[in-house]
Amino acid sequence: MASGRSAYLNVMVDAAEKAGRSLIRDFGEVEQLQISKKGPGDFVSKADLKSEKILKEELQKARPAYGFLLEESGEIKGADAQFRWIIDPLDGTTNFLHGIPHWSVSIALEKEGEIVAAVIHDPVRNELFHAEKGAGAFSRGKRLRVSGRSSLVDGLVAVGDKHFRDGAHLPPGCGIRRMASACLDLCYVAAGRYDAYWEGGLSAWDKAAGALIVKEAGGYASEMDGGKNIVYGSGILAANPTLHADLLQKLPQWSAQAAAKAKTAT
Predict the structure, then answer these.
(1) Of 82, 152, 184, 217, which has the fewest beta carbons less than 10 angstroms from its beta carbon?
(2) Which domain does 29 fall in, by range?
């Protein structure tokens, strides 16, 4: 355990790493299952549930009074109404299902409606991102910082919405990625690997941990229309402060153009 981390963050890290070890073992079986007639779908569902069970048990052991919001099992109220864990036991399920090594485990701690601690673990790369409110965001002992880019020219963005995937609206030289793991997309914005990321239709467990990590790395996160209800609102836009402000102005126009283009093509 790293020094300087709170007790509850250490609990979160330990739980995420334990779930990650279980998922790595199961991920090793996926390639073999791809060639079977039944396919790996049922197996991956069980791996997902197993990861959730590990996270729930580990966190409950350490903080028995806290509640849960779980992707697979829904809401579980705790005796202490102030706190609850928001968990995605396997973000990037489709990647996992197809043997693509880009998926993660996500845990956020919510206190009275606000996210105060976050852990996102990439077991394949053994890369763990974490943050606490007011204490910065870190990975592998180094503080994370969002990119300093003030323009998307020659930049790199991640998107989830299908209308944006062709990159037609982006300035010259700007690359576009669709990696299918919202949690890692947010971490990559925090680490300065991506300049921005946006996606609609996400759930609380897709965004809760990553949004705090972005903020603590000096970035901005909001709903795609600028709304403040990041965790429970519709979608997310994350970037450094300059690009975030710019994208808030441009995304509605781009979205309308993209939707019109898609309608014409059908």
Answers:
(1) 82
(2) 7-143
